[in-house]
Fold this protein.
Amino acid sequence: MWGHFDTISTPAEYVESLKGRGLRVYLMGELIPEPSDHPMIRPSVNAVAETYQLAIDDVELGSVQVGTADQRINRFLHVVGSQSDLVDKARMQHELGRRTGSCFQRCVGMDALNTIHSVSYEVDQKHGTDYHSRFRTFLTEVQRRNHVIGGAMTDAKGDRSKPPHLQADPDMYLRVTRSDKDGVYLRGAKLHQTGSINSHWLIAMPTMRLREKDADYAIVAAIPVHADGITFIYGRQANDTRCNELGDIDQGNAQFSGQESTIIFEDVFVPWCHVFLHGEYEFAADIVERFTAYHRCSYICKSGVGDVLIGAAAEIADMNGVAAAHHIKDKLVEMVHLNETIRSCAMASAYQGRPLASGAFLNDEQSANVCKHNVTRFPYEIARLAQDIAGGLIVTLPSEADLAHEEIGPLARKYLTGASGIDAEHRIRILRLIENLTIGRNAVGYLTESMHGAGSPQAQRIQIARGADYDRKRESARSIAGCEQPNLSK
Ligand code: SF4
Ligand code: FE
């Protein structure tokens, strides 16, 4: 059940731990024998491996002391127990976005662990169950092994006007099909799941508020990625097959990418020791709200990726010989302003964290929702400005094969040289990076995933309205204006 790898300390050990698991992964219509070796998948493995590298390069940021000075765990497996933990979590995510220019995939599991820590405690308080102690036993073991946890939340949903139990096909939401003395059996699918194939465990959670008739769908469970009955279908991304070509220039970011997949569960068995909610439907809403509070703050990752794109825009402005132009300087300032707004909201959310009954801390929901809502908009504007500064070359450049061609290569390089002293290849590499982040492979994470990940924009607007506290605002207005009238909204 735990896989063959005991404790993972280095990026190389992490990559090794992914091998030989016999996963059933389909990619472009083929069953892939060893996913982590596949050239289309490997950049996403590298991005997760960077979470192990950070814990080596910057011990304080990438890991947390849990006992004596040498007893540390990776920060991605730590349950946040203070405001400063929340702040360090956010700082780590910003740094990893900056290091990879990509989605490093490990946050979903971290946010799931934090959510289940507090919710399982509260379920036990109400129902006398023992979910929390089961969860803590599991948590201690994954911390010791330094495993990667993937979340599994978003169901297929079918007809969105209907709850799970009224769907024409009952498998549209992950459900318990039967249970026995040993455990439960799960069927259904989870869509657009980040980093699942690069994980060791999945934590399945409900995706929405549930009612009594949906009790079969109220399931939280930890499942090994290599469990029998699980099939992955890899989500292809813009320009992803460029990795099959010669060279690395056209990929823009040959080292790192994100990973999304569809996970299909066909009567997957989960022993009771890894079941952390089973039928207590009234807690589904708490799980969703708490998870999204954590995860919408986690989108500080995009400000790290934004740093990379702003850096690329500043570089290309130099290389094009336009860095001194006032409008270019102004556009760069605008990009920084937007990017820092994202980062600041996440940091504010972390600094305003509060304790929950289990001892875990939760970041401020309102700031987290504002952070994520900004993320649904600002990266698009930052990307637009980067393309504006870069010029049309990002979509008209010759390929690396043309640059390497004996006859036309020198000609292409001659006419693609920008400001004096700038090597044409360096200019092309920066342009390809901008392409990668704004319309290529990492635009998946930087743009569309920013729109819909952790909930689409309307989901944040609903939460922002709930947290708006209009009454207090009205009171301030009435008091300052000298209005004696009662609050008409009451
Ligand atoms: Fe983490 Fe950001 Fe990727 Fe989500 S999109 S898993 S928050 S890096
Ligand atoms: Fe996400």
